[in-house]
Amino acid sequence: FAQSEATEEFLQMMNDLFDIFNSRNLRQKFYKRPINPDNYESVLCKLEECKEYLLNLKFENGQLVVRSNRKTGVLGFLINIESLKMLYQDICDKEQILPYVPLYQISQDHLEIFFGCIRAFGRQNNNPTVRQFKAAFKRLLLRTEIKGATTGNCIALDDIPILNATYTITTRGSNK
């Protein structure tokens, strides 16, 4: 493919960003591995490289994408890059709450699957009324795990408990 270098560079940057933002377990390699103390410097370096690339990305007419009316996607990536850096600092460096940041666990996929389940309750109508939405939402809240449909914007790669309900009986001043 002649003169495809710019496209190749764009695709490689986007691939690396998607790998970083979809990281899930420490046994994975390269940018698919969640950000942790062992790979923090290399991931940070790649994030900065991607940030610079996105900030300087131009249309054929020379206009910067971030200065155009079509900047939404690029701004989303830039915000995610900065958010990831701050998130890692807060939960891994400062507070040491987690040893790594599994970004897949906080991705939008789980919301997509949840709302796909709500749409599935409508059978032929995937645009539920308020009444149908409330009924589907209540039914989904009673389940401990949500199983996604096989069609839709994304598919579940693992079972994520969204809401767990417990039953507690209270008797005069004590919980049982």
TrEMBL record:
Domain of life: Eukaryota
PANTHER family cross-referenced by the UniProt entry: THAP DOMAIN CONTAINING 9 (PTHR47577:SF2), THAP DOMAIN-CONTAINING PROTEIN 6 (PTHR47577)
One Pfam family recorded for the sequence: TNP-like_RNaseH_C
Provenance organism: Ooceraea biroi
Domain Transposable element P transposase-like GTP-binding insertion: 1-34
InterPro entries linked to this entry: TNP-like_GBD, TNP-like_RNaseH_C
Organism ancestry: Eukaryota, Metazoa, Ecdysozoa, Arthropoda, Hexapoda
Domain Transposable element P transposase-like RNase H C-terminal: 104-138
Protein name (database record): THAP domain-containing protein
